[in-house]
Amino acid sequence: MKTNQSIKNRTVLSLILFALLCSTYIYAQQAVKASDIMRDLKMGKTVSYDNVIIIGTLDMTYMNEKLPDLPKKKSWWKNGGSNSIEEQIEGSISFTNCTFEDNVYAYFHDEDSEYTFVANFENDVRFANCTFKGEALFKYSDFERNADFQGSEFGDRTTFKYAKFDENVSFANTVFEEDAIFKYTEFRNGVSFNQADFSHNLDIKYTTVKGEFDISNMTVSNYIDSKYTKINGKDFNKHLLDSKN
After folding, report:
1. Within-domain flag for 4
2. Fewer Cβ atoms within 10 A, N terminus or C terminus of the chain?
3. Is 29 a residue whose pLDDT tops 50?
4. In-domain check, residue 10
5. Is residue 26 part of a domain?
6. How many structural domains are present in the chain?
7. Full-prediction pTM beyond 0.90?
8. Are 108 and 84 in contact (CB under 8 A)?
9. Mind listing the pLDDT tens digit for each residue in 3-14?
10. 141: containing domain
């Protein structure tokens, strides 16, 4: 006959195993392959994720898919063409409380072929309260609708150089652990950097803003390069930042 103690021990062991199985299942539910997201984007589907972990590089330019069919190195230059290969993302994108374990590319320059790959966004784009552990590159991207990056943390290299935001965009409450590059960026209908935290340098050289420019409680730990920056036609005044804090 089994003792009460042995029954209790087996019960505790069963509960532990059950908990481990549940944890494994929950983790499996939370992990999403970047390749699956890319497949849906390619088909023009709406992409929406909340509180998931994205595994693998999310390359919205589809560089690896396009490279084999492109002319060889520099032949585009000899024929008077362009080295820019663009991808139009038609569906809306929404990531909330998500973690990107690897790189996120809407821009990539391939040194071997010398082609530059860019993704443009025709619908709303949302990366709210997300964590970017790898690079987050949006250079040259055109955001045709509203864009929302509020509350997100950029832990590695990031750039929005030459990006164009046709509608309102929010970087409120964002954290940039490395240099933040907004050089030549165009904000055509307002931008918010309310309570944004730049841990290193902020480059807004040649940046233009039309509409609301909210920098209330924005902090920059090191240097702001604002040469030739225009806010509604006027020069950016660094003292304005102090008055907003």
Report:
1. no
2. N
3. no
4. no
5. no
6. 1
7. no
8. no
9. 555 555 555 455
10. 33-243
